[in-house]
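Q: Please design a sequence for this.
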């Protein structure tokens, strides 16, 4: 993707994530690594929300590597459908609170992981991190993000996704008299294009249920506030009640006005499908959408185009999925084996090439990855990393839940802009 190199770069971006993590609770795992851990090495229940479509294709690719590397351990699929963990996270909480954890679960690096650490629900896996060679293979900035103040690491990263991407259908754009190769410098500059599509009767901007609206919102905040202002929303240096935030929320309101009215009943694959089927012109979504286009043999540049959300070329809306070892996991040996596969170059290559993401390891050959993924890998090193709100990097789960409620109320017409802004300010505190 086209991007502007910022001198602040990745390190400043990472620091701006504000992850002053501190370990607490959680007994030490045995640290033996491999598949011969302290019990239960016959099977492993892996809890994710990659239950269907291209996400399941990605998980299946990882499972294939797992089966090769650990043929004696049965993979038990604990996936719960619902994009961004919209159903999985609540169920996971119930299971953790009733001491019925899966053997390993998907969690996002950053503030969301801190929730599980604070609740003493996951183990320190730093010895595996070293043993699996991740200390050398994962970029230092990501290692820093995952490391608590006392040097502990609580998850094994599987991938890096970008949240601030626009996906578009070139034919629909042409029908509206637009240049399909055009990009837009700001949300303001994007509006005339949305109006042009609206005049054709097609949906200018497809969006789905609450979390996809939050995904859209975070990118508008990035665009209007810039990386520093956006990061300030999470470290307290940007005032949620300021007029700059009012302006950004007003832009969000304008964009919602260009979206499909059935949004609350749709998940992200539906809204990507609207682009593929030519029902909508633009969609803002994380780059797991790339996997959905690929899965349907859509050709980049012909069947779809992509570019950073207007005004966010210089930012990488960062999120990383990672896998944990829950306290009290029944099959610790199985979980260790899974973590080993997740960490392996083979696992990372197979999983990420199918998932639309880039590997967390920097020693994976990307030659067979899509053009989009190669551009994302380049952008990851040349833009400012900012934490995704909708995907656990910026804010704890409880904050995100409050924000999602406020967004839903607002987009469904149950609150006005002033109330919305106030509820956002209260949610972040
Ligand atoms: C994110 C997750 C991605 C993808 C997406 C849509 O939270 O990190 O891997 O699954 O949700 O479900």
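A: Design:
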């Amino acid at each position: 993707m086209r991007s502007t190199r910022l001198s602040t770069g990745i390190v400043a971006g990472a620091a701006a994530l504000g992850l002053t993590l501190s370990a607490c609770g959680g007994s030490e795992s045995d640290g033996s690594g491999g598949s011969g851990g302290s019990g239960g090495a016959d099977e492993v229940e892996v809890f994710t929300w990659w239950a269907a479509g291209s996400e399941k294709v990605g998980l299946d690719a990882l499972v294939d590597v797992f089966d090769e590397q650990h043929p004696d351990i049965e993979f038990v699929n604990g996936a719960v459908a619902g994009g961004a963990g919209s159903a999985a996270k609540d169920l996971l909480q119930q299971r953790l609170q009733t001491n019925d954890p899966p053997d390993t679960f998907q969690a996002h690096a950053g503030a969301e992981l801190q929730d599980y650490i604070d609740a003493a629900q996951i183990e320190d896996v730093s010895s595996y991190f070293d043993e699996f060679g991740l200390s050398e293979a994962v970029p230092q900035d990501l290692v820093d993000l995952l490391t608590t103040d006392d040097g502990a690491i609580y998850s094994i990263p599987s991938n890096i996704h970008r949240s601030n991407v626009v996906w578009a259908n070139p034919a629909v754009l042409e029908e509206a008299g637009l240049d399909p190769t055009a990009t837009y410098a700001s949300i303001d500059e994007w509006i005339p294009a949305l109006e042009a599509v609206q005049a054709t009767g097609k949906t200018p901007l497809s969006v789905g249920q609450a979390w996809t609206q939050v995904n859209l919102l975070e990118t508008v905040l990035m665009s209007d506030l810039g990386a520093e202002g956006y990061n300030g929303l999470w470290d307290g240096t940007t005032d949620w009640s300021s007029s700059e935030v009012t302006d950004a929320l007003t832009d969000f309101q304008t964009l919602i006005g260009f979206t499909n009215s059935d949004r609350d009943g749709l998940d992200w694959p539906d809204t990507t499908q609207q682009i593929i089927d030519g029902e909508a012109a633009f969609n803002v979504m994380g780059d797991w959408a790339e996997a959905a286009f690929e899965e349907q043999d859509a050709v980049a540049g012909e069947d779809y185009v992509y570019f950073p959300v207007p005004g966010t070329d210089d930012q990488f809306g960062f999120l990383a999925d990672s896998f944990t070892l829950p306290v009290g996991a029944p099959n610790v040996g199985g979980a260790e084996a899974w973590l080993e596969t997740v960490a392996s170059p083979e696992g990372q290559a197979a999983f990420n090439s199918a998932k639309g993401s880039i590997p967390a390891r920097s020693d994976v050959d990307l030659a067979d990855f899509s053009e989009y993924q190669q551009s994302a890998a380049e952008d990851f090193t040349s833009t400012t990393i900012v934490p995704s709100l909708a995907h656990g990097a910026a804010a704890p789960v409880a904050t995100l839940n409050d924000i999602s409620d406020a967004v839903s109320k607002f987009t469904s017409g149950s609150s006005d802009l002033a109330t919305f802004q106030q509820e956002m300010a209260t949610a972040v505190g």
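Q: Thanks. Anything notable?
A: The CA atoms of residues 206 and 283 lie 5 Å apart. The radius of gyration is 21 Å.
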